[in-house]
Amino acid sequence: MELRGAGVSNFVGDDPFPAEDFDLWADTYDTSVATNRGFPFDGYTQVLDLLVQLTDAKPGMHILDLGTGTGQLAERFDALGCNLWCTDFSEAMLAKARRRLPKAHFARHDLRQAWLSEWQSPFERIVSAYVFHHFEDHQKIELMKTFAHDLLAPGGSLLIADISFRTSEEMAEARLIAGQDWEEELYWVAENILPRLQAAGLSTAYHQVSYCAGVYYIQPRTEARIRY
Questions:
Q1: Cβ contacts of 208 within 8 Å, gap of 6 or more
Q2: Are 8 and 151 in contact, with CB atoms under 8 Å apart?
Q3: What is the pTM of this model?
């Protein structure tokens, strides 16, 4: 089976998000997200904890973590007895995650490229944290649709934690709060993207956690819609 629409790389010239930048960040990443009390990691621990809660993960579940970084999210599922498959495009980040999770399966992979041919088995849950704000909305939608329809087991769900806002007005307020810490990236705005995900055949709900981050719960349209 080959994934529909996999591979969304369309940048011209210099890569706006090179893996080398994340390689340099690997040694300090855990400390930086743990100690940050403002933008963009305000509520980071609570966001990850909510994502795990919403998965209703059980021992033995097969879980795919997209952009695992140093493995902070995956570690929570490891503690629940889940089987883990984890990707990242930074080899330095993966080295940290491998040490943290010696039983997990790992692969270096850039989500802007075609999906891994050797990882086609269905997963009960697909999760990701603080990754997809590097993609345009149409790329987010294409990737959500591809993973939800082609890699989820029946009854499975896709959960995305990321920098996100309920409305454009709330994003503007967050920009003022963040001040010089604000970076112009491709952040989620729920009021804009939820209708487009629905139109793409996905049942979707959103839960805001901090002023700048939240969790999306996504399933193929055939599944019952989840509301919060």
A1: 164, 165, 166, 190, 214
A2: no
A3: 0.90
81: CB partners within 8 A, 6+ apart: 58, 59, 60
Do the Cβ atoms of 40 and 60 come closer than 8 Å?
Answer: no
- Write the single-letter amino acid at 206: Y
Report the length, in residues, of the chain: 228
Q: Are 160 and 216 in contact (CB under 8 A)?
A: yes
User: What does the pLDDT look like over 168-222, one tens digit per residue?
Assistant: 999 999 999 999 999 999 999 999 999 999 999 999 999 999 999 999 999 998 6
Q: State the pairing for strand pair 62-66/213-220.
A: unpaired
**C-beta separation of 163 from 212 below 8 A:** yes
For residue 67, what are its two tokens? 């952009």
* Three-state secondary structure call for residue 45: helix
Residue 132: DSSP 8-state: G
